[in-house]
């Protein structure tokens, strides 16, 4: 299974095409819309989120609520496009540079300058329209389809804010999936501890007031994965590696860790590795889950626990210095609108890119053109490994 996305931030729409999903899997628009609407929530977002109401149009690959086995095409329209028709519409390029809103001033922390050098564009709007995180709408749409597949296979996945600006949403690791789902309801910023939620919102408000931005840590938790998904035999079949790549590819993500992650560097082996146990009821399991559900590039059958670090939003009301590529003069980058914190939204994006990688690995391991047969194969595998 694979997917592609297309679309500019202020263009007509975001488009997603998914190929390789088996036939006869139940899926509805609501399954996808629920995810899209969750991505729009969260304290700290700018004015754009008040303009958009992301709803999917399934335009291919689904009929009467079931997948056909053909490519699935999904469209989410950009409501903001109506304000940008002169700049992003199909009319011949306007002569007036003000109408075209030509961008010659690269913003620090964005793709603007590197992208302009690479593609030879002197108008950096050609870069920023695509490098914008608006594209994560299309990725969440793809992930929502993958998440639906996982749900039908008894695999639950949830993404939530772990911390914002150093304030921990939850300071415990022993949370049930129900607790995690509660925290994940990203509006405005959730914690099981009301005080922590308030502190995170205050930190966002303060950053906004100061013309600054803040980042944080997101976590994704997956329950119900059987052991042995992924592979150790080749670097590009290691599922933890693929998940890390997908998480790192989210706009503004700067690092990924599984389980205790970087903490492992400061601990002895006896404090890191998870002892193996067996019971009739559960089959093989681990006494602890410090390695976050992976050994040897394969799932261990324990929950997958993966964290991603999001840097503070790069566009600031407090301007940063840059250089105009036409005049080579120094200027202070000023802005019209921006998010001051998008960590809650990014947690939803992360949940969905992880869902896609997991669903893809399952389909590689249990290839089947028909969903009911895939489900049977997974159920049989689960029975087999319990008594292995
Ligand atoms: C959900 C989401 C919303 C974002 N909103 C903004 C924003 O409003 N302003 C901004 O400057 N960057 C925003 N970003 C981050 C930029 O897209 C990102 O930093 C930029 O494209 C450069 O990519 P890099 O940080 O991965 O190198 C957002 C990222 C995410 C995931
Ligand atoms: C549109 C979304 O996020 C956008 C991501 C983004 C960026 O530079 O990444 C910049 C902002 O866009 P604009 O300049 O139009 O206000 C965000 O609103 C979205 O998440 O749907």
The tally of helices reads: 12
Q: Helix share of residues? A: 25-40%
Mean of pLDDT: 95
Shape: globular
Beta-strand portion reads 15-25%
CATH class: Alpha Beta
Bound molecules: flavin mononucleotide, ligand EPS
Helix and strand composition category: alpha+beta
Named CATH topology? Chorismate synthase, AroC fold
> What is the number of domains?
1
CATH superfamily: Chorismate synthase AroC
Q: What's the order of the H and E elements? A: EEHHEEEEHHHHHEEHHEHEEEEEEEEHH
Based on DSSP secondary structure assignment, what is the total number of beta strands? 17
Rg over alpha carbons: 22 Å
CATH architecture assignment: 4-Layer Sandwich
For the largest sheet, list the strands in their spatial order. Answer: 8-7-9-15-10
Distance between the termini: 29 Å
Q: Summarize the main sheet.
A: 5 strands, antiparallel
Q: List low-confidence stretches.
A: none
Briefly characterize the structure.
This protein has twelve helices and 17 strands. The chain is an alpha+beta fold and 388 residues long. It has one domain: Chorismate synthase AroC (Chorismate synthase, AroC fold, 4-Layer Sandwich).
Would you write up a description of this structure?
It comes from Gracilibacillus marinus. It is an enzyme of class 4 (lyase). This reaction introduces a second double bond into the aromatic ring system. Belongs to the chorismate synthase family. This protein has a single domain (2-386), classed as 4-Layer Sandwich (Chorismate synthase, AroC fold), CATH 3.60.150.10. The chain has helices at 29-39, 48-51, 85-88, 97-100, 112-119, 125-131, 136-152, 177-184, 194-209, 239-248, 343-365, 371-386, and strands spanning 2-6, 13-19, 56-60, 62-63, 66-67, 72-77, 156-164, 167-168, 216-223, 253-258, 276-279, 283-286, 294-295, 298-299, 304-310, 321-323, 330-332. With 388 residues, it is of the alpha+beta class. Strand 11 and strand 12 (283-286) form a beta hairpin. The structure holds flavin mononucleotide and the ligand C=C(O[C@@H]1CC(C(=O)O)=C[C@@H](OP(=O)(O)O)[C@H]1O)C(=O)O. The site of flavin mononucleotide has 21 residues, from helix 11. Residues 46, 109-111, 131-133, 136, 250-252, 311, 313-315, 338-339, 342, 345-346, 349 line the site of flavin mononucleotide.
